[in-house]
Amino acid sequence: MADRYANFANSGLGRTVVKRLGLPDPPRLRRYRPGDPLVSGPVLLGAAPGGRLSGEVGKLLESAGVTVAESGAAGTKYAALVFDATGIGDSEQLRALFDFFQPYARSLTGCGRVIVLGTPPEAAAGPREATAQRSLEGLTRSIGKEFGRGTTSQLVYVAPGGEQAVESTLRFLLSGRSAYVSGQVIRIGAGSASAPADWDKPLDGKLALVTGAARGIGAAIAATLARDGAEVIALDVPGAGDALADVANKARGRALQLDLTAADAAERLAGYLSAGPHAGVDIVVHNAGITRDKTIARMDASRWDSVIGVNLTAPERVNDLLLERGLVTPGGRIVGVASIAGIAGNRGQTNYATSKAGVIGLVQSTAPILAAKDITINAVAPGFIETAMTAKMPIGLREAGRRLNSMSQGGLPIDVAETIAWFASPGSATITGNVVRVCGQSLLGA
Amino acid sequence: MADRYANFANSGLGRTVVKRLGLPDPPRLRRYRPGDPLVSGPVLLGAAPGGRLSGEVGKLLESAGVTVAESGAAGTKYAALVFDATGIGDSEQLRALFDFFQPYARSLTGCGRVIVLGTPPEAAAGPREATAQRSLEGLTRSIGKEFGRGTTSQLVYVAPGGEQAVESTLRFLLSGRSAYVSGQVIRIGAGSASAPADWDKPLDGKLALVTGAARGIGAAIAATLARDGAEVIALDVPGAGDALADVANKARGRALQLDLTAADAAERLAGYLSAGPHAGVDIVVHNAGITRDKTIARMDASRWDSVIGVNLTAPERVNDLLLERGLVTPGGRIVGVASIAGIAGNRGQTNYATSKAGVIGLVQSTAPILAAKDITINAVAPGFIETAMTAKMPIGLREAGRRLNSMSQGGLPIDVAETIAWFASPGSATITGNVVRVCGQSLLGA
What start-end ranges are recorded for coiled-coil regions in this protein (chains A, B) (predicted)? Predict the structure, then answer.
């Protein structure tokens, strides 16, 4: 799991060698620790004329203790450049982006943040506005590739009427919680979201179920949700044994041994959840997943069936039964785990990519239905994450996966977990149907 | 413009060297020549139980002179594997894909074709079906990366009620016209489309305007639309001079010198089109585009303004005025030219990527409005295309762009032109709002 090259590149000697030879230069990413301030410097906040978000954003940042500058000063280093582009109604007005970003492109601190706020093209007043708003995506993705030094760059579309629901997302994106999330397009829907009493414990009082929790990304999800205040049920197959118990203990939660592909699994899970004192569950994270890689020419049917069964059919069945029984509470959160392979496809992974593209389909098709029940459903799509699984890859593939992204390094399980915790926050009530990649802005895509 | 490596790799000695050293192996792609048969071997056609397309597809392929096999035979080489997946209503039924593709994964001829037909997830009967249909994307993209040897792999979503409108797309995808199009998701809407009298001259009697036509991709578009029967107006800036005249002459069309960024350009173009005997135009291809690359930190405002102006604002103005004056005929076709950079973003191209993402926005936001006028609007998004522009790239970047795709080579201007000609076909009447990449399934994406 160790990225020895990154450790070397960040050593005294390594810095010199990397610079001289023009080698990949993976910065040390700023990751969140409880108690950290949101950002470690002032935030420059700009807006195109007529925008509807910068006022609200300025207020919430200031009340979060952030120093907000509304006009830039030469020589100042900013922790973030935030631009409200909702006032842009026409391609000619895109010039406001250039005017804001150009003078301060070199004024960001390391691991800085670029956030552009826009109106979802589908909610724009007409084609001219929709076109200009859609073009923001080209800007933010290019900036993510250009700025480097751990800078992340995102486009956040806020539906008209969603102005009061942006805080959880801004906090996530500004903080070290989103260290490995870049080049993403996030949609916040209309409506309001209640702020948690304590932004460092946003999940206080919530009960969370995490599948595949015994190791790797699942263990990090369990630990992170617990850190954020949730009571965690860590679920894994009976064979996971001690590892699962360890995770549950560390999270001060419960371990639940269950093979989700068993015919009666959903029924047993429903029974378990309805028997508890909570009578239901607030957060469901479908993390359990397997790979059985082979080219399709060499694949046997069991590899196909098991991957589809664990990664896709099991979450479908669990969702269907829990929802039918009313066991996901109002205000509930369901999160799926997709993958870059489900977006881009991958050689040797027809089964896995099919299952993970299906997870995206599950999220997108279920979101409108669950909205009526005040439940959100979203997915993360991890790129190259440092786990026991990726440590076993052949070195050529592993190094390519690690370096071919804007961070020149792999992500950590915690990065996936933080993104899930953001979806799970009470503040994310109007975020649904999103698929957010946790990939350091990998070059790979579709 | 020459890909010397590909020429070498396809030489007698080169084949041996490439195999021994495991070097990239760019196959010679099968490209269309008038009179070519659709495919050079039998097509294996399968279906999941309950599908609504394979009957129609079998009939149209047979009437196009294709030998269709409905069950595979060991040892036979197939030119294409076509699978109707519309009957798949649940993730467990995805097994039908494995059962169809696994035994014949090695039975495709070089430059073979994989086509999976599905139901658009948004038109599915419920979340289970939508999820399964969405997962088809993971399969087709993985197959594209896995099969190699010039195989292309696509997912074609056919809306319920669009069964009679699939022929132009199947012909495009099976033929050498789509040599460099792979890993794409195409949506065919409900409704019917009239077959052209002659599939080798589908644009007979149509008047087509091509901007930026003097060279490169624009010249290929003009030539290809003319080859397919259209009368072509080749437009470029006055400075293009002889090159433009040459293109127009070769296409037996007209040259029109006009700077589209001039304040009165749209007005002058409208005047030109309304004065002609045709009183309007049937096909408008917004190909004119420029790059002015710099990182945003080093960019001056004129680079920003000119790129947005030429690539995005000019097409918007032309569309708006031509549509307002009724100068795009009913049955008309508008095609924009986006770019991989507009999808993935690119270092040094904040201006270009913004403009090209905008072209995608233009297409997506205008399509529903134009549907009422029986006009379609779509975009191509080229990847690495061998042109004078890419020939000037530094060798490292150029070779990366050329090889990092499923074809291990760059595309040709004709590949972009063929895709535009398919959009322009009378048979593509229900295809609108699509963005199709012409990139050999580049690894780069979003």
Answer: none
The distance of B412 to chain A (nearest Cα, Å) reads 20
- Chain B interface mutation, best of A78, A81, A90, A91, highest count of B Cβ atoms under 10 Å: A91
CATH class entry, domain A207-438 = alpha beta
Residue B372 at interface with chain A, using a CB cutoff of 8 Å: no
Residue with tokens 């999220």, as numbered in its chain: A363
Check pLDDT > 60 for residue A1. Answer: no
Question: How confident is the model over B221-234, as a mean pLDDT?
Answer: 98
In tens, the pLDDT along A250-296 reads 999 999 999 999 999 999 999 999 997 788 999 999 999 999 999 99
User: What is the Cα–Cα distance from B294 to A284, expressed in whole angstroms?
Assistant: 45
Burial A428-442 (b: 16+ CB within 10 A, else e): bbbbbbbbbbbbbbb
Report the C-alpha gap between A32 and A40 in whole angstroms: 12
Instruction: Point out the least confidently predicted range of A329-338, B384-393, B404-413.
Output: B384-393
Average pLDDT score over residue span B319-331:
97
Residue ranges of chain B that CATH labels 3.40.50.720: 31-188, 207-438
Considering only alpha carbons, which residue of chain B is nearest residue A132? B358
Positive or negative CA dihedral for B401, B405, B407, B413? negative
Kindly determine whether residue A143 and residue B345, on different chains, have CB atoms separated by under 8 Å: yes
Residue B408 has pLDDT above 70, yes or no: yes
pLDDT digits (tens, 9 = 90+) for A199-258: 999 999 999 999 999 999 999 999 999 999 999 999 999 999 899 999 999 999 999 999
* A90-117 pLDDT, tens digit each: 999 999 999 999 999 999 999 999 999 9
Confidence of residue A170 (pLDDT cuts 50, 70, 90): very high
Catalytically active residues of A are 352
Which residues of chain A have a CB within 8 Å of the CB of B127?
316, 362, 365-366, 369
pLDDT digits (tens, 9 = 90+) for B247-280: 999 999 999 999 999 999 999 999 999 997 788 9
Instruction: Please give, one letter per residue, the 3-state secondary structure of chain A.
Output: CCCHHHHHHCCHHHHHHHHHHCCCCCCCCCCCCCCCCCCCCCEEEEECCCCCCHHHHHHHHHHCCCCEECCCCCCCCEEEEEEECCCCCCHHHHHHHHHHHHHHCCCEEEEEEEEEEECCHHHCCCHHHHHHHHHHHHHHHHHHHHHCCCCEEEEEEECCCCHHHCHHHHHHHHCHHHCCCCCEEEEECCCCCCCCCCCCCCCCCCEEEEECCCCHHHHHHHHHHHHCCCEEEEEECHHHHHHHHHHHHHCCCEEEECCCCCCCHHHHHHHHHHHCCCCCEEEEEECCCCCCCCCHHHCCHHHHHHHHHHHHHHHHHHHHHHHHCCCEEEEEEEEEECCHHHHHCCCCCHHHHHHHHHHHHHHHHHHHHHHCCCCEEEEEEECCECCHHHHCCCHHHHHHHHHCECCCCCECHHHHHHHHHHHHCHHHCCCCCCEEEECCCECECC
pLDDT at A43: 98
Q: Are A347 and B305 within 8 A, CB to CB?
A: no
Distance CA B334, CA B286 (A): 8
Q: What is the pLDDT of residue B24?
A: 80
**A54/A84 Cα distance (integer angstroms):** 6
CATH fit for domain A31-188, picks 3.40.50.720, 3.30.390.50, 2.30.40.10, 3.30.720.120? 3.40.50.720
